[in-house]
Specification:
Structural class: alpha+beta
Radius of gyration: 13 Å
Strand order of the largest sheet: 1-2
Shape: globular
Number of domains: 1
Order of helices and strands: HHEEH
Number of strands: 2
Number of helices: 3
Strand content: 15-25%
Largest sheet: 2 strands, antiparallel
Length: about 80
């Protein structure tokens, strides 16, 4: 929710983890209309929304090193 200052750390994580799918941040930070539209809680550490054709297929909250495998598995399921 921090906005544009998260761009570099997000890119670093993507490089370190070998993530090739698009990762985004909210350009307007916590003031973005997307926060309310997608019901993203500011109390979470992070939120991963995986969508296809405008429909959210998976929603992961508070992902950490141990639970990141579930995100990977969901991405793999979506690209098959």
């Amino acid at each position: 929710m921090g906005g544009p200052q998260l761009k570099a750390p997000i890119q670093k994580i993507a490089t370190q983890k070998g993530i090739t799918i698009p990762l985004t941040y909210l350009p307007d930070g916590p003031k973005a209309g997307d926060i309310l539209a997608w019901k993203i809680s500011p109390q979470t550490t992070n939120t991963f929304l995986l969508w296809n054709k405008g429909v959210i297929r998976y929603n992961f909250v508070n992902v950490n090193d141990k639970s990141f495998a579930a995100v990977t598995k969901a991405v793999e399921a979506m690209v098959k």
